[in-house]
Amino acid sequence: MSDELRMFQDTARRFMQTEVAPHIARWDAQGHVDRELWHKAGALGLLCPSVPAAYGGGDGNFAFEKVLIEEQARVGCSAWGASLHNGIVAHYLLAYGSEAQKLEWLPKLASGELVGAIAMTEPGTGSDLQSVRTSAIADGDDYVINGQKVFITNGQQAGLVIVVAKTDPNEKAKGVSLLVVETDRADGFRRGRNLEKVGMHGQDTSELFFENVRVPKANLLGRSEGLGFVQLMEQLPQERLIVALGAVGAIELALDLTTAYVKDRKAFGKRVIDFQNTRFKLAEARTEAMLGRVLVERCTELLLEKKLDAVTAAMAKYWTTDKQFEIADLCLQLHGGYGYMDEYPISRLWRDSRVQRIYGGTNEIMKELIGRFL
């Protein structure tokens, strides 16, 4: 924690307390955060903190992304898709974009003028990205994109979407490419429903439709077609660490809330924490939270050293999100009937925890990946 990182943490914490925490329930009801939130975050330097200053970013490293993720988890907000915007979308552009592409789009992501999304999942394709059916066929100086995407984070507000598509539909992995679509310039682009979900009610998770959408060939990410699958695999360790960091932050918040509750709540004439079962269950969960914290701290060190491999990231993603769901469920149980009420934050933490085991690659796929290297 350098002085610069502590200053960033202080800014992020104040922002979460003043601009995020008071609005969580309202965002859950309306199904998205306020568009102005992105502009406010950009003005404070909270967007693209690990992007070089030459492209409008904060000139930091992944530690700055980590701090922002943790401060958002601290207030129990799952509505704002900043971690995807900052740590995933911007980094595809940074890693694979041309100089012209980076100069064009990264400053707009850093200011909040553009909200970023990445369109991977399709109605018939989730973790198996080699099998996407969305096509991007070369036609003169353009690509023509046709297809449908689903479960897209930031889908209703995104102005820049990285689309996973087949530039060669006859190939599997070698046919996949990444193309950038600016939504306000894309005739034939259409947003579908803001999907109603079990949890993450404030996150605008959407369907996206591409009907003969023409984008310039200059919008291809990478030096040639067919590199998209490799690009996805290279970025997935950071994406999975982002998920794991959110999981550990949510675990710690759930335990803090629950510990305070059981110290105050009484049953049969004594505090709930005075029952041995309560103390033992919380002792086990606190130990697992510590193990999760150590794991993500080590993974962050490896990422900063450019040594975080796919297997280690998969271990972190699956273990922390499994524990997040288990511990959220335990904490709700210790709240009793009140835990099932929306007015208690533990109910939101419980609902939101379930999807963590699905996106970013299902936990079953994580175990398959780990198993291949045994």
List the helices and strands and how they pair.
Blueprint: H1 3-20, H2 24-30, H3 35-43, H4 62-74, H5 82-96, H6 99-111, E1 116-119, E2 135-139, E3 142-152, E4 160-166, E5 176-182, E6 189-194, E7 206-216, H7 228-264, E8 266-267, E9 270-271, H8 276-304, H9 310-335, H10 345-353, H11 363-372
Parallel strand pairs: 1-4
Antiparallel strand pairs: 2-3, 3-7, 4-5, 6-7, 8-9
Helix pairs in contact: 1-4, 4-5, 4-7, 5-6, 5-7, 7-8, 7-9, 7-10, 8-9, 9-10, 9-11
Give a brief description.
The protein is of the alpha+beta class.
Task: Describe the model.
- This protein is an alpha+beta fold and 374 residues long.
- It has three domains: 3-114, Acyl-CoA dehydrogenase/oxidase, N-terminal domain (Butyryl-Coa Dehydrogenase, subunit A, domain 1), CATH 1.10.540.10; 118-226, Butyryl-CoA Dehydrogenase, subunit A, domain 2 (Beta Barrel), CATH 2.40.110; 229-372, Butyryl-CoA Dehydrogenase, subunit A, domain 3 (Up-down Bundle).
- Helix content is 50%, strand content 15%.
- The chain has helices at residues 3-20, 24-30, 35-43, 62-74, 82-96, 99-111, 228-264, 276-304, 310-335, 345-353, 363-372; strands at 116-119, 135-139, 142-152, 160-166, 176-182, 189-194, 206-216, 266-267, 270-271.
- The strands form three sheets. It has a four-stranded antiparallel beta sheet, with no helix packed on it. The chain has a three-stranded mixed beta sheet with strand order 1-4-5, covered by helices on one side.
- Strand 2 and strand 3 form a beta hairpin.
- The longest helix has 37 residues, at 228-264.
- The protein is globular and about 80 Å long.
- The two termini are 35 Å apart.
- The mean pLDDT is 96.
